[in-house]
User: What shape does this take?
Amino acid sequence: MPQTSDTFSKPLLKWFKQHGRHDLPWQHPREPYRVWLSEIMLQQTQVATVIPYFERFIAEFKNIKALAAASEDEVLHLWTGLGYYARARNLHKAAQTMVEQHGGHFPQNYEDILALPGIGPSTAAAILAQAFDQPHAILDGNVKRVLTRYHAISGWPGEKKIENQLWEIARQHTPDHSAADYTQAIMDLGATVCSRNKPACDTCPLQSNCMANNQGNPGDYPTPKKRSALPIKQTTMLILQNRRGEVLLQQRPAQGIWGKLWSLPEINEADETAEQISQQRFGCKVVSSSKLDPFRHTFSHFHLDIQPLICKVSTHTQSVMDSDSLVWYKCEPNNSKASQYKRGLPGPVKKLLDNLLETTT
Ligand code: SF4
Assistant: This one.
């Protein structure tokens, strides 16, 4: 591949000056804690979705030390609805590691950053480039899309051979100056011009040398992963509501989906009834019950069809409060103000509780 700064990084940086994103909340100030938080939140998630989460998170945890001192529940609470909760748990652990090993400061070299929980090679490089202006190549989803199109590289980018090839190309394109701007520029180009479904090649600064554009087939890149249809699982979620309007939540085990989040009890209606489970597990007597509309939640590896079943119950509160993994949760608009309500909830559970709140207020 010929050396490409004239045809790649220079036009890209010029384009960025005029058309790049310069007003994202983590760019002002562009300091390591904020850059790190944004990079983690932006994994698998769009900028528009991330912005309000980022602002709430930064308002609550102003720096690494504040995040390290928080409880895991408080961190998961602020992540509720953003998905991929391992990101939040790793963020919390990484903050604690930085307090223990780096005096509460962000390390400034690649190996130390890569050693932190939840940070891979591309994220470590993006932090160094954006927060410390160090020239490191990045290779996130947007960059992979731009590079596979620009060089017409076939093969799924998750395949080791293709990924190594892309890393090599990404390094060759990365200039040894303007690291922060170049990193933001290539991410912006992938997000706003070289988009997944409708690349706007006519406005792209790389158009004249882009092989996919010249071949007329940008949509063929990157090669998608071969996948079979996702399996479908079913569950019934019990919304056990006591006379005070509170709903019973149960903390999930650390391993598996929604690890350590507070969720609704689930039953398999083919084997057990809500009445049996409520009585046996939670000491609640079901007074009345009705089914709500079912809906589907899709994970990366399966669909989950959820049948919500709301049950009004009478209960001996003590029997439930005896367990650390059960809580009566009050659904109220300002529930984040009281510490006992600062709990991480899976997205579908949050949706059900929000709907419940709407119908009862
Ligand atoms: S010319 Fe089109 S396909 Fe090529 S990098 Fe630009 S937007 Fe992507």
About this structure: The two ends are 64 Å apart (CA to CA). The chain has 15 helices and eight strands. The CA atoms of residues 13 and 182 lie 6 Å apart. Strands lie at 232-241, 247-251, 262-263, 266-267, 284-291, 295-298, 303-315, 326-329.
